[in-house]
Design brief:
The chain is an alpha+beta fold. The protein is built from 4 helices and 4 strands; from the N terminus they run ααβαββαβ.
Length: 157
């Protein structure tokens, strides 16, 4: 090969002196932006809250009543986000939870466990920093109380 043809040939990517550069500039992971909807964070937080022992239900009495009616409507399904409100920013989120605890459990222990579980789940799944998890305990489920969610669906005769 002549010197002129050697200059015009592309260099091979396996040479140590020429780093592999991808088109578009920068690593693929840094191209673009990911946004996460409030509802996504609310679902994750709702599931993580319900996983904690001592949490009987979520939401206020009124929202649970409406939720129980909606759950019985075909296609309505259970609302995982009942009792959860999220505010999502670019890199952080804040959560407000409303829960009903079972009688006899330590409310402070349940609240601590809920915070730990929610923060771990939301941060792991979304990459967002959870700056606060506010918990409002709206009721205590007594052992002999009948709850809308505990009643079996009526049968048609």
């Amino acid at each position: 090969m002549t010197e002129a043809t050697q200059r015009n040939r592309p260099e091979s990517p396996d040479k140590e002196s020429s780093p592999l550069v991808k088109r578009g500039g920068g690593a693929p992971a840094t191209r673009g932006r990911t946004t996460i909807a409030d509802g996504v964070v609310e679902k994750i937080a709702g599931m993580a809250t319900r996983d904690v022992a001592g949490v009987h239900a979520m939401g206020s009495g009124l929202s649970r009543t409406f939720g129980a009616v909606r759950d019985r409507v075909p296609g309505g399904g259970k609302s995982v986000t009942r009792g959860v409100k999220a505010e999502v920013g670019e890199s952080q989120t804040a959560l407000d939870l409303e829960i009903v605890v079972e009688y006899g459990v330590s409310i402070s222990d349940v609240a601590r466990d809920v915070r730990e579980n929610v923060v771990a789940a939301v941060e792991r799944m979304t990459g967002l920093e959870v700056v606060e998890v506010n918990i409002a305990v709206s009721d205590v489920k007594l052992p002999d109380e009948v709850d809308d969610e505990d009643q079996p669906e009526p049968r048609l005769h």
